[in-house]
Specification:
The protein is built from 19 helices and eight strands. 37% of the residues lie in helices and 5% in strands. The N terminus and C terminus are likely disordered. β5 and β6 form a beta hairpin.
Length: 428
């Protein structure tokens, strides 16, 4: 069977469908591109894979992802392997200008020479060229000058290929390579400093993967914290989440949907086990935190027929059919709200965002999920969303702080409805 031609003919939901390519038919370069989820940042819904154009916000202004197809005029068709390597691991384009660190070259610096060469082979020989000019950044002069990035690199980059840690297993080290390097998980899940630098690039420092804000979502803590982290997740829970976008504690949302739709389900079982092994080894940032415990008082009140407050009434009218009065949902597809790590996060941004804007659709290897969170920005006011979100954050023992109408209004102004935008793109 001619897989590339088959994939080029597939379409779904107005965009090109995800590859259903079996692992045996996926060459090494494509596998690595899947693991690095290159397609998510270098593509837009309805566009051609890797042709660029995705808008990204930075503290200085908006920038746009570039065309990395092998088109010679607008892409990287004239790049040599050395040029490609320098862009990927050093953040410098062929013409000598520095790339903004939205490109995760501080993580890609860890890639081996062999993996860089395989990625180059894939992009040059397997990805169809797409003639699409790159869009200039919206960063105003003189802030758009790039020479200061060279100084930024000196201060904040750890140069050198990943070195296995002595005393750790081969599985752990493989997981560390995937998470710290190719998967660049820290680019989203690690807090950033005043210079927009990741505050840690590997597990030797405690802030690595401790959670961060990203595009109006709170990218969760991936360390061993018992409430808002992965402390209560087993390795099997992690593997299930990366394979399917669901597990007993939650469902994928926000930017992570692109990872599920285009990347992690394509990884081998061995690599998924390695990622889970590595993540489960990370110590909690707050090891003495009191674990969440279920409180049935919320369920009793909801069943009484006398909801206490507008938040409880709204929950009964809008949420109970999916998440039920116990707050336990119907895992794994309709996630629980009681004890959900997202609900236990001190930052309510993700909960406000998903209630306002809903969730994009999960599509696993071309098969769409039947369930998705709807948006409520049209039929609920800022105060009503604040009331129901506050109720959920406090209910069933979650113990979260209140959310105000002003918090919701700020999120409403900053975000667009997301429920009709799905990025599922062919790799070649």
């Amino acid at each position: 069977m001619n897989w590339p031609n088959l994939l080029r003919g597939m379409a779904m939901l107005g965009v090109v469908a995800g590859s259903a390519l079996p692992a045996a038919a996926m060459d090494r370069g494509e596998y690595l591109a899947r693991a690095g989820d290159c397609v998510a940042c270098h593509s837009v819904p309805g566009g051609k894979a890797f042709a660029g154009g995705l808008k990204m916000g930075t503290p200085l202004g908006n920038i746009y992802a570039t065309n990395i197809t092998p088109d010679k005029e607008t892409g990287i068709g004239d790049y040599s392997l050395a040029d490609f390597d320098r862009a990927l691991r050093r953040g410098m384009a062929r013409d000598g200008h520095h790339l903004y660190p939205a490109m995760p070259y501080p993580s890609y610096a860890k890639l081996t020479d062999a993996d860089v060469a395989s990625l180059y082979e894939f992009f040059m020989k397997e990805v169809p060229p797409a003639r699409q000019a790159n869009r200039p950044s919206e960063i105003p002069w003189p802030l758009d000058m790039r020479w200061p990035i060279a100084l930024w690199n000196v201060v904040f980059m750890d140069r050198g290929v990943f070195q296995p840690r002595v005393g750790e297993s081969e599985t752990w080290n493989r997981g560390a390579y995937l998470v710290e390097g190719l998967g660049h998980c820290g680019a989203c899940h690690t807090p950033r400093g005043l210079a927009w630098n990741e505050e840690a690039l590997d597990s030797s420092r405690g802030k690595f993967l401790a959670g961060a804000m990203l595009d109006f979502w709170s990218a969760p803590n991936l360390r061993g914290d018992v409430n808002a982290g992965l402390g209560r997740w087993s390795k099997a829970d992690l593997v299930q989440y990366l394979k399917t976008g669901h597990n007993r504690d939650g469902a994928v949302f926000g930017s992570m949907i692109d990872v599920i739709n285009n990347s992690s389900p394509y990884l081998s079982d061995a690599d998924l086990d390695a990622v889970a092994t590595y993540l489960k080894s990370l110590q909690a940032t707050a090891p003495d935190e009191k674990p969440w415990a279920y409180d049935a008082a919320t369920t009793k009140m909801l069943r009484s027929g006398h909801p206490e407050g507008r938040g409880a009434a709204l929950y009964l009218g809008q949420c109970v059919s999916c998440h039920v009065d116990t707050g336990l949902g119907f895992a794994p597809f309709l996630p629980p709200l009681a004890g959900n790590p997202t609900l236990l996060d001190k930052d309510p941004s993700s909960l406000i965002n998903i209630v306002l804007n809903g969730s994009n659709q999960i599509v696993i290897k071309g098969v769409p999920d039947a369930y998705r969170m709807p948006q409520f920005r049209i039929n609920l006011s800022d105060q009503e969303i604040a009331d129901v979100v506050t109720f959920i954050r406090k209910g069933w023992g979650n113990g979260g702080s209140a959310v105000t109408a002003a918090d919701v209004a700020a999120m409403r102004k900053a975000t667009d409805p997301s429920s009709d935008r799905v990025v599922i793109l062919k790799m070649r």
